[in-house]
Each structure stands twice: as C-alpha cells, then as structure tokens.
Amino acid sequence: MSEQPKTFPVSWEQLHRDAKALSWRLMNEGPFEGILAVTRGGLVPAAIIARELDIRLIDTVCIVSYSSDNKQGELKVLKDAPKESKGWLIVDDLVDTGKTARAVREMMPDAHFATLYAKPAGRDIVDSFITEVSQDTWIYFPWDLALQTVPPLVQGKYD
Ligand SMILES: O=P(O)(O)OC[C@H]1O[C@H](OP(=O)(O)OP(=O)(O)O)[C@H](O)[C@@H]1O
Ligand SMILES: Nc1nc2[nH]cnc2c(=O)[nH]1
Ligand SMILES: [Mg+2]
After folding, report:
1. Whole-angstrom distance, CA of residue 116 vs CA of residue 49
2. Which residue among 13, 58, 94, 101 is least packed, with the fewest CB closer than 10 Å?
3. b/e map 34-51, b = 16+ CB within 10 Å
4. Which residues bind xanthine (predicted)?
C-alpha cells in the first residue's frame, strides 16, 4: 500500500447487506464443512455468513499483515489454519495486494476463498467477492469509524 488518496467508508448497514449478498452467491458454491475466518477483519463477515448458511463449525487463522499506521510489513502467522481444507470456506473482509490471501491459500489449498471487497491486485486470488474498488482506495470498516461533524463545502460567507 503506497498513497491512498481515495476512501471507501462502509457503514454497518452496508457491511451487513454486502455480507448477505456474498452469502447468496456462496449458496451455489457449498455446502461447506466449516468457515475459516481470517482474523481480525474476517470475523464479522464470517459471523454473518455463518448465520445465513447455518454453518456452526468456525475456525480461525490469525495473521498480522498491516501495522496500526496502515503500512504492510512481514506476515506474522500467530495461529495456523486447520489441516483439512476440502469443503471449507475461507472468509476475509478484503483482498488488497493479495499477500494475506496467498499465504492462507497455501495453508488451505482446497478451500473456497470469499471476501466482501477486492482490489485489482488481489481479485484473481479469491474465488468470490461482492464489490471491487480501485487499488488506490482505502476501505474503512464500520469498526474503524465514528460519527463526527464535517465542515460544509463553502463556509464563512456571512461571518
Ligand atoms: O491483500 P493484503 O494486502 O494482504 O491485505 C488484506 C489484509 O489486510 C487486512 O488485514 P490486516 O493485516 O490489516 O489485519 P486485521 O484483519 O487484523 O485488521 C485485511 O483484513 C486483509 O486480511
Ligand atoms: N481497513 C483496511 N485494511 C486494509 N488492509 C489492506 N488494505 C486495506 C484497506 O483498504 N482497508
Ligand atoms: Mg485481515
């Protein structure tokens, strides 16, 4: 990730709608044995998809890729994926460069990989996604956002 001049803020409602849309799409790809959520971003989408597809077996792969200043570093795997991947569904919030998805794919080669959002550099690594945004867009998830005031476009004319 270099400069990110564009932003794509996602509300809770939008995220829920997109996770349901992804669930509809995944209905044609299953049934699935279980869901592997890629932490942390995949946890909330995985919960919504698990509810829609009635999947009760949920596991995690715990990976740190980006630091708190949104810069990508070396991948750190804190917890591995399970050994069996046939019939499993991998869920993450997004694929950007594809580095995280590639690493998880190597651990789970036979699983179906789904994300809500995809950028061009990573879109071919996943099997299903809902919305594509440009590579120079930074996606903000609802758990990263807060309601706040914004100034109008024109201000101070009658001061
Ligand atoms: O395609 P890539 O360039 O590898 O980026 C995508 C990954 O980056 C984000 O995770 P992050 O490492 O920020 O951790 P988090 O899910 O805990 O927020 C996102 O949730 C994906 O997992
Ligand atoms: N929140 C968020 N995390 C990311 N990790 C890699 N790309 C992104 C992005 O666009 N938004
Ligand atoms: Mg993540």
Report:
1. 11
2. 13
3. bbbbbeebbbbbbebbbe
4. 96, 139
Which residues have C-beta within 8 Å of that of residue 104, sequence separation ≥ 6? Answer: 36, 38, 61, 63, 81, 90, 92, 113
Residue of 59, 93, 144, 159 with catalytic role? 93
Structure tokens at 35: 């869901």
Ligand index nearest the alpha carbon of residue 115: 1
Nearest Cα residue to 104 out of 57, 59, 48, 141: 59
Token pair recorded at residue 88: 């499993």
Domain 6-144 CATH assignment equals 3.40.50.2020:
yes
Is residue 96 lining ligand 2, measured as CB closer than 6 Å? yes
Relative to the CA of 100, which ligand 1 atom is closest?
4
Q: Please identify which of the residues 92, 110, 136, 159 carries the catalytic annotation.
A: 92
Q: Is the complex ipTM more than 0.90? A: yes
Counting from 1 in the atom list of ligand 2, the atom nearest the Cα of 8 is 10
At 86-140, the pLDDT tens digits run: 999 999 999 999 999 999 999 999 999 999 999 999 999 999 999 999 999 999 9
Query: Pick from 109, 114, 129: which is nearest to 30 by CA?
Result: 114
